Give the backbone structure.
Amino acid sequence: MVFFKYSLQDPKLHLPQAGYEAKVKKMDSQLNQYLPVLMLLLVTSGFAVSTLIISVAAGKLGRRTKTKDIPYECGMLPEGEGNSRMSVKFYLVALLFVLFDIEVVFMYPWAVTYKKLLETDATLALGGMLSFMFILLVGYVYALKKRAFDWKS
Amino acid sequence: MEHAAVLHAVESGSKIQDLAWMILVAPLVMAVGTTLFVPRDRTLAAVFNIGGVILSFCLSFVLFCVFGGGSAQCTPFEWLPIAGLDVHIGLHIDPLASLMLLVVTGVASLVMIYSIGYMHDDRSYPRFFASLSLFVFSMLGIVLADNFVMLFIFWELVGISSYLLIGFWYDRPAAADASKKAFLTNRIGDFGFMLGILMVWSALGTVDFAVAKAKLAENPALLGSMAGIAGLLIFMGAMGKSAQFPLHVWLPDAMEGPTPVSALIHAATMVAAGIYMLCRVFFLYTAAPGWPGPLSMLGDLSAATLISLVGAVTALLAALIAVQQNDIKRILAFSTLSQLGLMVMAVGLGAKAANPSAAMFHLVTHAFFKAMLFLGAGSVIHACHHEQDIWKMGGLKAKMPITFWTFLIGTAALAGLPPFSGFYSKDEIFALALETNPILFGVGVLVSVLTTFYMSRLVLVAFFGAARSESADHAHESPGSMKWPLVVLAIPSLMVAWLPLGPFLSESFDPAHPVHLGDIFFGPFNHNPIAAFFGFGAALFGFSLAYSLYWKAAKDPLPTQLGLLSKVMRNRFYFDEIYETIFISLHNLFSHIADWIDRWVISGLMVRGVSGLVNLSGRALRLVQTGNIQSYTFFFTVGVLLVVLLARK
Amino acid sequence: MNYSLIIVEITAVLIGLGVLMTDLWISPAARKGLGYAAAVAVGCLLAFATGSLAPQHGLGFRDSFVVDDLARFFKAFFLFGAIVVILMTVEFSSRIASGLSEFFALVIFALVGMLFAASANDLVLLFVSLELITVTFYILTSFQRNRLASLEAGVKYLILGAVASAFMVFGIALIFGSANSTNFRVIAAHQTELATSPVFLLGLLLVLAGLGFKIAAFPFQAWAPDVYQGSPAPATAFLAVGSKAAGFVLLIRLLTQAVPQITAEWSRLLVVMSAATIIYGSLCAIPQRNLKRLMGYSSIANAGYLLLGIVAMSRSGSTAILFYLGGYFFTVLAAFTAMSALAEHIETDEIAGLAGLGRRSPFLAATLTLSLVSLAGIPPMVGFFGKVLLLRSVFESAPGRPDLYLLLGIAVIGVVISLYYYFGVIRSIYWGGSTPNLAPIRTSLGTKVALGTCIAGMVFLGIAPNGYLRIAETAIGGIDSAAGRLKSPALKKVSAHEAH
């Protein structure tokens, strides 16, 4: 029996080009470039925290009245409940919309590279997308049959 | 397989293998099947289990005929291939094993058929048969095992089935106590047995019989200074199972079990397992003797010699005790003890002649006639409405003729009268003793006199004279299922010794040493006249002594004549009492100390302390498990930091 | 490209979709039948996957997908597990208010993720397959929508799973950044150079954290008790068996196959993780009153024992993991199947609720007892042999690594503690206080068959472990030799040569 082995003689193995070690070293030095980002992070969070602390420490707690406690809404008096109720169907439809919408996003890069893909592996290029669409279709049929799009029921 | 060359070549290995496995497994299948599927159905349970054992018997017979004197080892699979300890589940078949298979399955079949009648009114009928099947399976396992570990496993299984069967009537306190006593006493022996196995393994590096034998044959001094101790420790196992002095105390009590159980387990087969085991590992005893430092004064005295002494002491003690027992089953029980002692003695003596066939020979004949005697006793007890005192019987000869005649044949065989089988096998032991150790020969003859004496006493008191109680008066012959096994058993009791078993058995040992077993009729008088005459004379003398004392006696005259001695004998030399005083009081002392240690040190300081600590830390750690998702996420992040920190060099 | 390599996975996807679609056109009453049909379909797939027609060895899809003995071993493992879980779900169906067919489909989709995980040879495939498993389990754990505990379990698993995935994907990004590849083979070929790169090491540790979450190893174990307690029993069982095994197959691939040299240097980390996991699981299990929560902690402790095999860093260690997982499989499935069968009759998950079970259903009581005895590691059950193998592998590696002796000691202490809490449950089954309800509990034939198989597996593997052990050894066979070959200097020349 032949076991699978990591044979480096295998011509199929995609090894990066020479100078790999130097690249690794370079990458490590790249980490240092992120130091300013870290500093920025510290400064911003420090600023936010310190402002809050200073405002509490320095500010005087004024008299609280009912009017003062009203949520600020562009100068208008707020109306109705803070969180209004909506039909649960709305979320379901919204979710399905987002879902199918996002799936379309996958097709853009595919479409862009389609010609190039055809050169390497035509079956994968078309077959992959077709099977992806098939699974989407199954999902669509499922949603349809479960009456997810049916607002009234 | 490094030991393949040692064995005789096996041509039809695979068929033999299948046959042997079927012999072994058939009773187990029936026991399990009965317990799982027909735990209530009396008829089916009996049919299944008896069928299973009879199947085993037939297959054993086929094996015996087809395979004859060959020897084979089949090791179909490895069980524990741990470095240095290769345990496989395998069977070893040789003349020794195939003969023993026949004895075990043959006696077991008859005893089980007998039980149909004897146990008829018992409500746990299926359980009884299932337990018997389980026992037969375990016993066959001992017979067929090809290595020490497997032998030990089946050894323990036999112990368990014996425990189950002695305590079969578990609602009787005496039976429950007896089963516990048997089990615990055997534990002592088994503990030594296990140590012995470990010792052999450490010295020889194998637990396989064939490999160990080959290694020892190559270099008899391989066991070195451990030879003596290892031999004796292994013998401890036999001491427990075969009830040798000083672990003999459990066997008489084991008679609390149903009589068929006494016949099968505590007379014919299980108690013989010790002898069989000694023969199986006989190569250990022919190795060069050796003792570790502190015991070096034992010098050339081999373990085998010590074993023969233990056997002789057991034989003599038990025979003396049997003389003054009145319970029919107890007499037979002590008689069994005494005969087992003779066999052990023969094994020990056999070491010098490099051949323990004499012991095996006696084992085989004894298995048949002792099983028959027990079944006969059961028949008597059954007829007398569970009366066991021989002084309350009498005159049974006319009322139960078949039981009487078969019992008489058994008695003659046990007493060693020619041409009954017992004569030949006993004679073999006497001849061996005469050649190797004249003192033990004397002991043997004395035991023989006593044996004939107490057996004649039993027969004269129970079967002759007038009925001494109401129940004996109303006695009648037992039903067919009980009668016929007796008749069938009478045949081998008479004739089994006529077969050329000796040369057959010798093939399992050292063929270089010729033996002269199995001479028909007056053969023994030719090759060793002194032994034969002494054996014959002892039987005649014992009988005439008994006749003069007990012919038409209304009560036992011996207590008045022997006085104190009789009382001592009747009370079994006070072994139970001595054990009770010494061991129990020691035990109580130790248990008080242990109790104190347990209460204050182990339980108080260690268990409560440790478990308290563990419990406390468990509770404390549980506080971390708040169920709060924010803190979980926090822990997760801290965990990542922890991992990075730990991975740093 | 060789598409036949993923034929098993494709079929599994089709079965899952088929279940989902069929449900749309059948009556609700026929859903149980659909479950049996799904089990049969997966059974056929199992027969195919273990047969000689299935792909045996191969590497494909830009080296990201590998089929070898290890992969095939785990594929069979997952397929078998899925069958039992589906059967268990049928038994449990009365407690799942709606969407029984969806439950079956989700189990099969999780199975697809596991099948891919068994073959993952690339960090991207590793991540995607793990996500497929985890996302399906988000739904499975919260499937009893009207039970607060189940919802809570789902939410907790979702949030913590997301955190773990975030760490993991960040780690993969770091690895890709430093190694220029996500492929295990490439990483393995360059591990000597990569071992000096802190970015790579950090990335690897983050991936390790993600896998640690899957197997519930300390310090990523916090989710396990809550999720185990809250989820429906079949989901918990699949989580305990499938998800954990998927984590371990990836750990074996990553740590002993891709980066064995680096793993060897992380001995301290792994020892501490293993020891802490054992101790944490064992100690926290003691005060538990809820059986499923107890099983959660038990699962943590078992992850610790399994880590012993990784710590050993040897062929026998990996073999021991495979063996232990096999035994754990039967044991846990038996326990959870028994629990699902009980769920209908005993209202509570509390251990005290088991009182009187010994009389109500001797069969279920015996099953539960046997599996607990096996978990406690008592011969002749398989748990004993698995623990022996794991401890032995550590012991063999111990010379020269003194901390391993300490780890062995801790593992043994953990075993002793585990006896305490497992036998607490057994005591409750047989000697628990009096219960008013002594009505006998009947079990369906399907459950009986599943339980019988599990018990037979537990006992058989414990008594005659050799056949299975040899399979495990074969499965591991390819791996160490690969790592060993990579260590040899001759190969470096080849790689240098090939680089041109």
Chain C touches chain A through 46 residues (CB under 8 Å). Chain C has a mean pLDDT of 85.
